[in-house]
Amino acid sequence: MHGITPKGKQEEVMALPAKGHIVVLGTAGSGKTTIALLRSHHLANIPENGRVLLVTFNGALVEYMRGISKSRSAKLVVENYHKFARGYLNSRGKMPRWNGILSPDEKAYYIEQAVEELKKEHPAESTLRRSKEFFIDEITFIEKFGVADLAAYNEAERIGRAAANIKRENRKWIFAVYKKYIELREAAGRKYDWDDLAFYVYNELQDDENERRYTHIIVDEGQDFSPMMIKSLVDAVADGGSFTFFGDVAQQIYGSRLSWRDSGINADKVWRFDVNYRNPATITAFAKDITESEYWRQDGDMVEATAQIAEGPKPILVKFSNKPREMAWVVERAISTGKTSSTVIVCRTRADIDSFLRVLKNKGCDATEIDKDTPGYAHIKTVYLTTFHAAKGLEFDNVFVPFLTDDKLPDPDTVANAVSEEDAYIDEIKLLYVATTRSKYGLYMTYSGTLSPLFPEDSDSCDFHDEEEVE
Ligand SMILES: Nc1ncnc2c1ncn2[C@@H]1O[C@H](COP(=O)(O)OP(=O)(O)OP(=O)(O)O)[C@@H](O)[C@H]1O
Q1: Residue 237: beta bridge partners?
Q2: Closest C-alpha to 254, from 423, 100, 132, 78
Q3: pLDDT of res. 163
């Protein structure tokens, strides 16, 4: 973080009084994480200020933030939402010691059981014959939105939902499944799942008369927080304190598609960071082509870059005749750029990461897998491996995105588990956007087989090559 001087709107946000609610939307690489960190340190260093919480979505980004912060402050806590939620519920004696939170598979199991029980009671009801995915998706919506009762559910607008056009008169059945699910899991001694933890945090805060722990709460990557997560954080701020939200709707990759605007944030003005300090103009142009795909869902909150600082080559897409050749090229190139720069290979699945790890090892390269225990990595010259999801918020000099084929992107499991194919495509194309905008210099994409439908194949901002042209 040394040597960064906030500029333009960044400087204006740094200077805002720490009171009330502040919203900053920004394009990729516009300094959201940087300003979130600088402002957190600034607030924590003011002697009369109370504690500051900087909260983000995934553990990898928490470690990254800790890595790039050169200073420490006893008054600043950096953690992800789930750690905050578990810690808070624990402090209130509401977190069981063991197995408090259902895994997604366990949640699916109890929802299926709930549907089966209701079917026995109401065998003629057709709504109960809808798919398991449908119920999981809808119950997750109820949880993330914090829908308290059937009346509120009937009122709740469904945002960005293509397939779940549920008639109002049938919503009572879905709500009944939700209620039954809660009943079954409670009977099994289980209190929460990952999607409704925030709902319980929020409810607990309503009854909590103790002084709030944090005076200032700052959220980075806020686009992936559910409305209930934001609501609970807004409520967790001490009287007279501040809540600041940083986000980029173009990078919303956890499938919630719910807006921060439904989260109880009350800001007079929305700040828009539109200078991209990370990506060269060549990459920004390519990323823009991704957003013009038929699968991209436009959103008025998206901020487009109006200026870039960095320079770099045009991205390339290379077609190979088979996968071993593709992997050999990616590995050789990544090892080569990894000697002088930070280099990452971004994969859709962990299985693909493992395949690359093996090939890299055979070539004598001990690549580092990025997870929540890998701090400050992006500044080290070496080869990293990560998933699309864990790459969010990070940056590297060179980014390789292999396996851009129709059987890998969109991920078939994600498509199979989605309510509709369209929903899955809308989420998966954002992964491509996130991965490509991680690069400070080079972007190398490859495939063998049929190109992914999510790739903007008419893009003028990418050079297309066959394998013999790059060997
Ligand atoms: N004022 C500035 N001067 C110089 N460099 C800056 C400035 N602001 C940000 N940067 C640099 O730009 C890069 C991107 O910043 P940062 O990661 O904070 O962006 P972001 O908006 O959080 O991006 P994303 O949402 O894509 O993860 C970093 O390398 C950061 O150091």
Answers
A1: 214
A2: 423
A3: 41
**How high is the pLDDT of residue 372?**
65
In the reported structure, the alpha carbon of residue 353 is separated from the centroid of ligand 1 by a whole-number distance in angstroms of 27
Please name the amino acid found at residue 173.
W
Using the atom order of ligand 1, give the atom closest to the CA of residue 10: 1
In eight-state DSSP terms, residue 313 is: P
Looking at the DSSP assignment, which residues form a beta bridge with residue 384? Answer: 344, 368
- What pLDDT is stored for residue 168 in this prediction? 78
Ligand 1 center–CA 1 separation, angstroms: 10
Q: Which residues are annotated as a binding site?
A: 26-33
11: CA distance to ligand 1 center in Å? 13
Virtual torsion, Cα 229, 230, 233, 239, nearest 10 deg: -150
Nearest-angstrom CA–CA distance, 39 and 266: 20
Residue 462's pLDDT is 97
Q: What percent of the chain has pLDDT over 90?
A: 74
Could you give the CA distance from residue 471 to residue 460 in angstroms, rounded to a whole number? Answer: 23
Position 260 scores a pLDDT of 84
| Residue minimizing CA distance to atom 14 of ligand 1 | 29
Which residue among 9, 276, 277 has the greatest number of ligand 1 atoms within 8 angstroms of its CB, and so is best to mutate?
A: 277
Cα 198 to Cα 217: distance, rounded to the nearest angstrom: 16
Query: To which H or E segment does residue 138 belong?
Result: helix 132-145
**333-337: average pLDDT:** 97
The larger pLDDT score, comparing residue 235 to residue 258, is at 235
pLDDT category of residue 373 using cuts at 50, 70 and 90: low
CA distance 283 to 462: 9
Question: Are the C-beta atoms of residues 424 and 381 closer than 8 Å to each other?
Answer: no
Query: Which amino acid does the sequence have at 36?
Result: A
In whole angstroms, what is the distance from residue 282 CA to residue 441 CA?
Answer: 9
Nearest CA to ligand 1 atom 28: 278
What's the confidence (pLDDT) of residue 4? 86
Residue 231 near residue 198 (C-beta atoms within 8 A): yes
Q: How many CA atoms does the CB half-sphere of 356 hold within 13 Å?
A: 31
Which numbered atom of ligand 1 lies nearest the CA of 251?
A: 25
Mean pLDDT value across the chain: 91
The annotation places the binding site for ATP at 26-33
**Could you tell me which residues come within 8 angstroms of residue 404 by beta carbon, excluding any fewer than 6 positions away?**
317, 432, 445, 446, 447, 451, 452, 455
Ligand 1 is surrounded, with C-beta below 6 A, by 4-7, 10, 26, 28-34, 248, 251, 277-278, 393, 395, 437
Instruction: Please choose from 32, 34, 220 the residue to mutate so as to test ligand 1's pocket, defined by most ligand atoms within 8 A of CB.
Output: 34
